[in-house]
Write a structure and sequence with these properties.
This protein is of the alpha/beta class. It has 15 helices and ten strands. The chain has a six-stranded parallel sheet, sandwiched between helices. It has a four-stranded parallel sheet with strand order 1-2-3-4, covered by helices on one side.
Length: 360
């Protein structure tokens, strides 16, 4: 169960469903916003609201809402339940029998718990000092990605036996060969940078970094991925009319190939974006952080030595430094530390099966 407030929540739901299906468990992904309002498209409204909150006046709206939810999780949850609770329960009754729910969005976990329909697992999609609203409500199991989010659960008086730590993924031998990926994408075999705006292309730092790279005319190959953001796609296309060696794409199933083909990622601190880069063993220069929500993700990436926060204008110099020294890239980043899990999918499936077995 997910909501379209940041593509990471939705993508995480599909990844979890895929993991469960591969383990023989029947799983479906639902977005309640597609069904709760007949008067106007709620999904589109939520996406617009999220974009506005994150981008207007340096994210001040998002910061205010985030702090409100963190300081008053009970009040915020109850208001949402008053507005949507009755219709949400009616919609739940229409989807057929369910053994348990997995929520990848905090308030959905609360609404599912209030419905009393089936046991609820909350899958936390950010790291570090996450919002306390993740741990409010009648939730049976919390899955968190790191010690920081685990500590918040403890501060919220969640019993330790109801919280499990499943570390972020690192691939185990499944990394696509860089040379093959470049051949498949018809790219030159030289230092390549993937600039990606994530699923929704949120954040202005991505475009600023791309402009800085193009203006600097560094001797690197650029892949500019705009996700589902049509405006960012147009901006990227305009940038590449200047003769710079770059390839522009929107949302594409070739994204894993792009990751494999690059040496370095320039992007935001979304949990999904970071984990995709981690799984491909590609370090990330973080140029965008959604205030409040993604600061913990950025801190995790830096502590785990899989990412580094830089300003957009610093990107060309940092890229040129790494392009000229493979040893510097190896020295500054690592994908073999204990903060990452080789067997992430197995860990998740095993944890859920053990929890379900103990209940039934």
């Amino acid at each position: 169960m997910t909501l379209p407030l940041g593509n990471g929540h939705t993508a995480a739901a599909h990844v979890i469903a895929s993991v469960l299906r591969s383990d023989g468990i029947q799983a479906s992904v639902y977005d309640p916003s597609e069904n709760l309002c007949s008067l106007f498209p709620l999904t589109r409204a939520l996406r617009w609201l999220y974009r506005f909150a994150v981008n207007w006046r340096h994210g001040s709206v998002h910061v205010a809402l985030y702090r409100l939810a963190d300081r008053h999780p009970a009040s915020v949850s109850k208001i949402v339940n008053i507005v949507f609770g009755r219709r949400f329960k009616a919609w739940l009754n229409s989807i057929g029998p369910v053994d348990f729910f997995i929520s990848t969005f905090s308030l959905l976990g609360y609404l599912l718990g209030e419905s009393g329909r089936a046991p609820v697992v909350s899958f936390v999609t950010d790291a570090g000092p996450v919002n306390r609203i993740w741990f409010y409500g009648s939730i049976d199991r919390h899955i968190v990605p790191d010690s920081g989010s685990y500590s918040v659960a403890m501060l919220c008086d969640v019993e330790s036996e109801r919280v499990s730590l499943v570390r972020p993924p690192i691939s185990a031998g499944g990394v696509i060969a860089k040379e093959q990926a470049r051949r498949d994408l018809k790219l030159e075999d030289r230092f390549t940078v993937l600039v990606t705006g994530g699923g929704l292309g949120l954040g202005k730092g991505i475009l600023e970094a791309a402009r800085a790279l193009v203006a600097a005319r560094t001797d690197v190959q650029l892949l500019l991925n705009a996700g589902k953001n049509a405006e960012l796609l147009n901006d990227f296309t305009d940038l590449c009319t200047s003769g710079t060696s770059c390839t522009v794409t929107g949302f594409s199933s070739d994204f894993p190939l792009m990751l494999a083909a690059c040496d370095l990622v320039v992007g935001k601190a979304g949990w999904l974006t970071l984990n995709e880069a981690i799984s491909a063993h590609r370090p990330t220069l973080i140029v965008d952080v959604v205030p409040g929500q993604e600061e913990g993700n950025c801190s995790f990436a830096e502590k785990a030595r899989v990412g580094r926060r830089v300003s957009p204008i610093e990107v060309p110099a940092v890229v040129q430094h790494y392009a000229g020294s493979e040893s510097a890239l190896r020295d500054d980043f690592s994908f073999t530390n204990e903060m990452l899990s080789v067997a992430w999918a197995d860990d998740l499936a095993d944890d859920l099966k053990k929890w379900a077995w103990d209940r039934w």
